[in-house]
């Protein structure tokens, strides 16, 4: 039986396939077909090789990666008290005439600009053919953006009348906990310094660093992303974090006219440069 559209069938039934589906196209020579098959096989082999290489790299680098994350966590804990923070009185002098929400908007905008500058710098450096430098660039980006966001978190707590009790180190630890948990500090439930620096806090800090590493890895792919996308990603993430913190703080906000008079914030002995690459990591 023959069907003009589908071709003939040995069983006498019309095939459901087009006439030329089971054979080479009329104008495709045997050499063309062989070349196409070779290219396909070659592409598959390259993909398989890359995948195998990535698996092997992950296996070999797992232990070093964990050590690196632990190192970054320790550096963030050490650097947190060195981040300069403006108290509410200073902020109101610098931004006269603004209410709490307007002032908070200004702070978020400035922090987003600063974190995007860090991302742009790292993304641009990743375009350079120096693969060994990339882990250091990633560490620099995470540490630099964390400093920007910790400063923002501390100043948002000032704006919403939610300064934690304690000395400089204790407040810095509270803000670091806020960064890892992506939520505002509840000053009605103060966390002691020992508890904050305990195993749970450090685990959460390592998890947050890992999350940032996964998000920021595309910034380090040469010829694929680069400076522009690195800047956009960091700007977006900083704004997203700020929105979560502000939502928490609004629930417990104390109006400025109801705030007790608070002492000025201490100035760190060795202030950390915020908004650029930390000197400790090659900045």
TrEMBL record:
Location of the region described as Disordered in the Swiss-Prot/TrEMBL record: 1-50, 256-283
Top-level taxon: Bacteria
Positions with biased composition (Basic and acidic residues): 30-44
Annotated protein name in UniProt: Uncharacterized protein
Species of provenance: Streptomyces anatolicus
Lineage, broadest ranks: Bacteria, Bacillati, Actinomycetota, Actinomycetes, Kitasatosporales
């Amino acid at each position: 039986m023959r069907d003009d559209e589908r071709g003939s069938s040995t069983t006498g039934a019309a095939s459901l396939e087009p006439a030329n589906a089971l054979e080479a196209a009329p104008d495709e020579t045997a050499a063309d077909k062989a070349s196409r098959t070779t290219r396909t096989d070659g592409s598959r082999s390259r993909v398989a090789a890359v995948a195998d290489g990535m698996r092997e790299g992950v296996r070999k680098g797992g232990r070093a990666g964990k050590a690196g994350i632990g190192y970054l966590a320790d550096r963030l804990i050490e650097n947190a008290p060195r981040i300069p923070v403006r108290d509410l009185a200073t902020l109101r002098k610098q931004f006269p005439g603004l209410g709490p929400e307007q002032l908070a908007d200004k702070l978020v905008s400035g922090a987003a600009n600063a974190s995007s500058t860090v991302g742009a710098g790292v993304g641009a450096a990743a375009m350079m053919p120096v693969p060994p430098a990339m882990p250091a660039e990633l560490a620099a980006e995470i540490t630099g953006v964390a400093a920007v966001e910790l400063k923002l978190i501390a100043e948002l707590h000032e704006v919403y009348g939610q300064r934690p009790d304690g000395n400089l180190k204790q407040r810095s630890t509270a803000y670091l906990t806020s960064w890892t948990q992506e939520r505002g500090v509840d000053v009605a439930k103060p966390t002691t310094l020992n508890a904050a620096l305990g195993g749970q806090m450090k685990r959460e800090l390592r998890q947050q660093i890992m999350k940032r590493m996964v998000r920021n890895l595309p910034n380090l792919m040469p010829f694929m992303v680069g400076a522009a996308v690195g800047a956009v990603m960091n700007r977006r993430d900083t704004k997203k974090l700020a929105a979560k913190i502000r939502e928490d703080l609004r629930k417990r906000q104390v109006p400025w006219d109801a705030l007790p008079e608070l002492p000025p914030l201490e100035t760190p002995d060795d202030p950390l440069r915020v908004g650029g690459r930390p000197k400790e990591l090659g900045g």
